[in-house]
Amino acid sequence: MNLEGHYALAVQHEKARVKKKLFYAILLLFTVYVLAIELYHYLEGWDWLDSVYFTTATITTVGYGDLAPQTELGKIVTIPLMLVGIAIGFYAIYAIQDYGKAHLSDVARQVDSGVDDAEKARTGIRRRAGEHFERHIGSRLRKR
């Protein structure tokens, strides 16, 4: 296999790794999110919407303060949710960024290829225009 083939294979493996990392980050965030929603629903007796609202406000670090756990167990659950939720949220953002970079390199390569093609076309047009000028106009100018 040539160097270009090895490079293409390495890029393919890196894309697969980044895609897998993104999948696990989102799965982990979703799992923590759903678990926290259920815990607040049952521990605090909140309806589902309030549980979703509080979990979202906590994980995103907004923390409006209009809802707060009243039970000791609810407060104890909230502490690790704050730490774990923020960490997993940042990891998910990092994984999304990594995924974007991996796919952006493809776009950049396609743009470079398009620019190269356009440059070749421009060079060809200039060459043909010069030949046309020489053939039809240059000979007339020399005759004068």
Task: Write up what this structure looks like.
This protein is mainly α. The protein has a domain at 3-102: Helix Hairpins (Orthogonal Bundle). 87% of the residues lie in helices and 0% in strands. It contains three helices and no strands. It has helices spanning 3-43, 48-59, 72-143. Helix 1 packs across helix 2 and helix 1 packs antiparallel against helix 3. The termini are far apart.
Shape: elongated
CATH architecture of the domain at 3-102: Orthogonal Bundle
Helix content: over 70%
Q: What structural class should be given to the helix and strand makeup?
A: mainly alpha
CATH class of the domain at 3-102: Mainly Alpha
* Main β-sheet description: none
Average predicted local confidence, pLDDT: 84
What is the string of helix and strand elements? HHH
DSSP summary, beta strand count: 0
What descriptors fit this protein?
Helix Hairpins; single chain; 3 helices; 144 residues; mainly alpha
Write the layout of secondary structure elements.
Blueprint: H1 3-43, H2 48-59, H3 72-143
Helix pairs in contact: 1-2, 1-3
What would you say about this model in short?
This protein has 144 residues and is mainly α. The chain contains three helices and no strands. Helix 1 crosses helix 2 and helix 1 packs antiparallel against helix 3.
